[in-house]
Specification:
Length: about 220
């Protein structure tokens, strides 16, 4: 299973200290985030949704082969149809959504769909989360830093407000590339932090190691 830095960061960073009883991974891909949350917690209901056929099949296989298969379930559905069918809200929702808002074409339709924001627009994601999240629940997401302000504005319009933000850059000299944001329905004076992944090429910072060490065989 291919593992990306954004997914590992989000899965490790997401707060589970409030002991949620239900979890949803929107746009699960191959199931990385759900598996990480299953490893970190005793959440009994861990659901995922994935619309791409091949990714869905891989996700189901990964769930079945994991030690937590009895707690994991993946729906093969689009977000809009999933929202229409679900009655009970989730205490914790997580998403590593597509980042590319511009139209790009690599010749691989599935890859392009995964990369283009057009396949899961941020406004659709936020509107769905606002309907699926329990009143005391939490929504964690990783997005490009350049989209942070507009994403927060969209969330605010749906009654979701930041609880904490961590901004991520690759090296001490590089620009901030990603924002990890936790949202709730309550307004906070929220802390912001920075996380640097590497001190130099393949030399990880102590902060990154501390956050992700339980998910790598070698660190």
């Amino acid at each position: 299973m291919k593992v990306g830095t954004d997914g590992v960061l989000l899965g490790a960073w997401t707060d589970i200290s409030f002991k949620p009883s239900s979890f949803l991974d929107i746009g699960a891909g191959t199931g990385l985030l759900s598996l990480m949350i299953a490893q970190r917690s005793n959440i009994e209901l861990i659901d995922a949704i994935e619309i791409d056929d091949k990714a869905y099949e891989q996700c189901v296989q990964n769930f079945e082969e994991s030690p937590w298969g009895d707690r994991l379930f993946c729906y093969h559905a689009g977000l809009d149809e999933f929202v229409a069918e679900i009655d009970e809200p989730y205490d914790l929702i997580i998403s590593n959504p597509p980042f590319y808002s511009e139209i790009v074409s690599s010749g691989d339709e599935a890859r392009d769909k995964a990369r283009q924001n057009i396949s899961l627009p941020f406004d659709e994601l936020i509107e769905s989360v606002a309907q699926l999240l329990s009143p005391s629940g939490s929504f964690s997401v990783v997005i490009p830093f350049k989209e942070e302000i507009s994403f927060k504005n969209l969330a605010r319009d749906k009654g979701l407000f930041p609880k904490r933000i961590t901004r991520v850059k690759g090296t001490p000299e590089s620009e901030i590339k990603r924002s990890l944001i936790e949202f709730t329905f309550h307004q906070y004076i929220y802390p912001t932090q920075e996380l640097t992944i590497e001190k130099s090429r393949h030399q990880y910072t102590s902060e990154y190691i501390q956050l992700t060490r339980n998910f790598y065989l070698k660190m």
